[in-house]
Amino acid sequence: MAAQPTEKEKALRGDLYYAFTPELMAERAQCADACRIYNEAVGISRRRRIELWNQITQDKTPLPPLDPKASVDDDYAALAAWPWVEAPFKADYGINLYLGQNVFINFNCVVLDTCAVRIGSRTLIGPNVNFYAGMHPLEPEIRNGTSGPELGKEISVGDDCWIGGNVTILPGVSIGRGSTIGAGSVVTRDIPPFHVAAGNPAKLMRKLDTTLEDEEGAEPGPVVGEMAEGGGVVAEGEGEGVGETAQGTAMEE
After folding, report:
1. Nearest Cα to Cα of residue 20 among 12, 29, 245
2. Residue 177, SS3 per DSSP
3. How many CB atoms lie within 10 A of CB 98?
4. Alpha-carbon distance 100 to 251, whole Å?
């Protein structure tokens, strides 16, 4: 008889799961501690900042060796592929967040990474942006406070995107490569590549004319810390409405 999946396994595949179990509470506590250390660190080098970031995501990718003769600018250049994340930053688990190369995340970003949250290379994230991969059943008798189950859907943001300040991205959303999301938007559905979208809910405003579109179909760039089984970060087309699940209707956190 096959072993029953753990609550963590259920969560990662988007099934109903129970969040208040010892394993998941311990993982959230570990992430909270790592975020606190990261947010309280001041006056540290770029290299040390990345090392503290890697404690949040538990990324084991080795940094380039430190050359004792290198200048500060030289070391910055050597670390250019690693993300820039301004404090404060908060996440639920951290280990389900995957960033591409040279990503910038501004102040007060919140990531509820119940499921994977993937952000592609060279993407810029404005201040106060929220990624909500977690959600709850609508039916209160199922939801049942902290005693009931919850679930999630993966979020994917492609390479070369710009997410404006105060944007909220809801569970299951994919934003295609090169797209821009206007400040204050709530993104409830997929955004195709090379488009501008804005509003609550976010709607397509126009298509961008860019030479990058000629490169569509090429292999995506590497993702720092990407798991071997992880998928790509670019998705196209309109998706299903947020909150429609196999188990029934649910809404974002």
Report:
1. 29
2. coil
3. 23
4. 28
Residue 84 to residue 191: CA distance in whole angstroms:
24
Sheet holding 84-85, edge to edge: 84-85, 104-105, 124-125, 162-163, 180-181, 195-198, 203-207
- C-alpha distances out from residue 156 to 66, 176, 180, 192, Å: 33, 8, 14, 12
Burial label for 71, CB within 10 Å (0-12, 13-18, 19+), is exposed
> What would the pLDDT profile of 49-63 be if each residue is shown by its tens digit?
999 999 999 999 999
Task: Tokens for 25, please give them.
Answer: 């509470």
Q: For residue 32, with 0-12 CB atoms within 10 Å meaning exposed, 13-18 middle and 19 or more buried, which class applies?
A: middle
Q: Residue 91: which of 18, 31, 26, 165 has the closest Cα?
A: 31
Strands 151-152 and 109-112: unpaired
Instruction: Pull the structure tokens for residue 240.
Output: 């299903």
Q: Are 182 and 164 in contact (CB under 8 A)?
A: yes
Task: State whether residue 17 is helix, strand or coil.
Answer: strand
Look up the pTM and report it.
0.84
Q: In this structure, which amino acid lies at residue 137?
A: P
Residues labelled catalytic: 136
Read off the pLDDT of residues 116-155 as tens digits, 9 standing for 90 and up: 999 999 999 999 999 999 999 999 999 999 999 999 999 9
Question: For residue 91, what is the DSSP state?
Answer: E
Which residue is listed with tokens 């859907």?
153
Q: Are 157 and 120 contacting, i.e. CB atoms less than 8 angstroms apart?
A: yes
**160 contacts: CB under 8 Å, gap ≥ 6:** 120, 121, 122, 123, 177, 178, 212
Cβ-Cβ contacts under 8 Å for 36 (sequence gap 6 or more): none
Q: Is the dihedral of CA 219, 123, 192, 216 positive or negative?
A: negative
